Request: fold
Amino acid sequence: MKIRQPNVLYGEFCPVCKGDFGSFEIDKGLCQYRKHPLLPSRLEEELKNLDNLFTKLLGSSMRNLQRLWALRVLNHISFPITAPTGTGKTVFGLIISLYLAEYKKKKSYLIFPTSILVKENHERLINFLKKAGFKLKIIAYHGDINEKEKEILKQKITDFEYDILITTNQFISKNFNLLRGKRFDYLFVDDVDALLKASKNVEKVLMLLGVKPSEIKNKQAIPDVKRGTLMVSTATAKPGKSAELFFNILGFRVGVFQNLVRNIEDKYVKQKSKNLLLEILRILQDGGLIFASREEELYKLRDFLKEHGIKVGLAISKKKKDLEDFASGKINILLGVATSYGVMVRGLDYPERIKFAIFYGIPSVRIPLHVESPGEKLTHFLKTLLGNKFDENKTLRENLAGISKESLMERGIFVEDEYLVFPDITTYIQASGRTSRMYQGGITKGLSIVMDTPEKIDIFIKRATLKNILFAKLNLTELKSLKKLLDEDRRKLRTKTKEEEIINPYLFIVESPNKVRQIASFFGKPNIIATEHGGIYEVTTGNHVLIIAPSFGHVSDLSVKRGLHGIETEKNNFKFIFTPIRKCKNCSYTFTDNYKVVKNEIVCPRCESRDIVDSFHHINFLRTLSYHTGNVIIATDPDREGEKIAWDLRNLLYPYAKSIKRSQFHEVTREAILEALTNLKEFDLERVKAQFVRRAEDRWLGFELSSFLQDYFKDKNLSAGRAQSPVLGWIIERTLK
Reply:
């Protein structure tokens, strides 16, 4: 698609020669003066090589989200990924490390939360290595290897003669002395939640990227120091204070997103019955995960199901054969425990096999009390903390001791077998996500069933609603039709299908930084990446990953030097020449191309300060973001001025993005933003033309009359507006009559 320019030229906006940027540059993607491509040729070549590697290893190209991540890594930008399960975060981390080692001779360190994930991803890397035909050295260290092999691997890690290192988070905590003083070019943390549990790990990771201890101590980065690139991945991030070092040193802040991409039927049963579980399994038959709430229930369930002829295995680190048998179809059902770092919760990725998950008991976090009541536990804790002062406060003692099970349940907390029990929605999201995974044809459909007592189910559903997960009561009569849908989806998965992007990245442009922050807050706590142009905010809204950035209002205005006040006439047609808007930070004077140049620098025409804010630089920044995302949505205000800003942005960003659309909303609410995202529009040229006419009147009438008044009265402070002057003339004329 080509954009036909309505007689508009953007002076001083070409990123190559800093000259004119018009229809030739927009249509051809070339600087007309220097005949040089507008897109960065080095990155284009690297993207092509990386995409070829993805195709060779996976049989398909990079997804659009993976392309965004690749461009950040290739540009040495450290960043967090907060995206739903199944979006290809881990496989990207593996393949980009291979690419960096083979093509750029760079060292990578991949960190996973559990030993089983280290082993699985080491095997995947070895398979990728064989497919690619690379000869690279990869070391994987985990808790399941024998002591003799551990010592050999420790020596190899110390010698630093490898291309890729894979370990758990615990390895950094226990064996950092083996890594001290070493610098990695790329560091991938598959689960930043686990890493952040030990605050010192953040400092250790930073040191492995080449950050100096003095920078960590002062919590401030030294400018222009070469460091490695950090990419942290999470699907359920809850960053603590230790994560602030990432922002202070590397310029990014990990957010908390709302999980909105789930193709899962969430069902509940207000009954925890083995016989009912068996009845459900007889209907669904194959491809299921059963999550016990506690480990002691796990083996009882296994024995019960085996007695009734169900082919069942255990998903625990010591039962690797059961995992293999499930993947191959020899076992129908896998049993595991619903804990945040359980093997089945985070370690399985079998989209063709896993169709449904059953939670035999709600996922929960259990805290031991070891005293007679929760009130007494709290009393004991405070007495230890406060000493004698606690005994003096009779009211406090009596209130705490009176905490009942009922009052705790009102707050969504249970007391069970000397434990405080909290519903764990985060683990539920992660575990049920095994049933619905992204693939090149879309996202597989999954079924998730939670079984427990009525009281627990009610509280669990209430908590889940806060995460936009809506449950419905399970009807056994509908299970057969649901099974057909699940089976049909897996058949589609096994056949080659047209590639479909479910989640796409978009640059979402609004006018002001305040509006950026307000919109980002609607979708959880955003990722923030600091830049010299301010922070950009990244959120997930469902099938959009929005990188929200401001335009800071108008980005161009009519030239002062060219044409008649920036407008040229060509055979009864008008050509509008727009140039960047500059503002002096010293005296606040705003100007366009009527500047002075001193020692090859633009200076303020009034005070000659070099401290200038230039919209040309901000446009180049937005061009970079457009190139990274490939898609742009411009959501400036729905009026003439907003449409002119949107039209300018469309023209100036077009060569860098595959798609640029207009979005409008009339109130700043979450619902209005989501509605605007689903109803993208084209640009309203009539409004754009109306604004052009208004600017022409400003210049031809307002500027000319102002110049006449200033010359006539010898006063440079006088001015005449395009609207006020005709009205004043009419008043004078009527008065004289």
